[in-house]
Amino acid sequence: MPAPERIPPGGVTVLDLLAKGELTVKGQVREASNAVLLCTAAYEGESADCVYKPVAGERPLWDFPDGNLARREVAAYEISEATGWGLVPPTVLRDGPYGEGMVQLWIDADDGAELLGLVERDEPGEGWKAVGLAQVAEDRTALLVHADDPALRRLAVLDAVINNGDRKGGHLLPAPDGRLYGIDHGVTFHVEDKLRTLLWGWAGEPLPGEAAGPLAALDAGLTAGAPLATRLAELLTPAEIDAVRDRVARLRTTGRHPEPSGQWPALPWPPV
Known about the structure:
The two termini are 23 Å apart. By secondary structure, the protein is α+β, with helices and mostly antiparallel strands. The strands form 3 sheets. The protein has a 5-stranded antiparallel sheet, sandwiched between helices. The chain has a 3-stranded antiparallel sheet with strand order 6-8-7, with no helix packed on it. It contains 6 helices and 10 strands.
């Protein structure tokens, strides 16, 4: 599938297609913990594959009592767009065959791209960053590593902003055109530190220089009355938006990637 900005080829925008198109359910992702339906969205002669996650199919989470996961997924897209990095596929909130839910453009992943790995040595090797030791057998461990990749690092910054509590390997989608996308952002925006990710390789290191502009844009966009803040107010609670502002301010002040807090498991389970 081509990059999102080139779908569809006519005058209909991707967001129009997702928000206004007729959704036809094609199947279901059975291994997902919540209802995930594969659909086709069709509008004014254009169509595209997409994912539809109805709120009715969400499992309640004791530590996310406010709102729903679908709105958090849309909020993650809004934050991603505000950075200018385009790390989250186009995502909208709308009514569908099973009620309100989020609809997101389907991205075909490049199965040949290597972003994560396990190595039988103490150091990660050139071009890789160490995450930590992983138990691979009863009596054997291996070093979990991720690629030292600029796009992956941008995603680590985004995760720090949205407080992503579930950045697994299967949530990383390298596209055939070289772009990288992150998906499954329902467990985000908690007011407490819930960052749980496989991208700890840069923990404590200075942020890349390219993060300064996007973080400044977020800081301005989160000002009360700004379009981004107004949009987030439709998706998150006031306390959650205040927490986003605090995280952006902290990143700009420290200039460093966050480190595990010790108050919450640092790695997601299962890791994929």
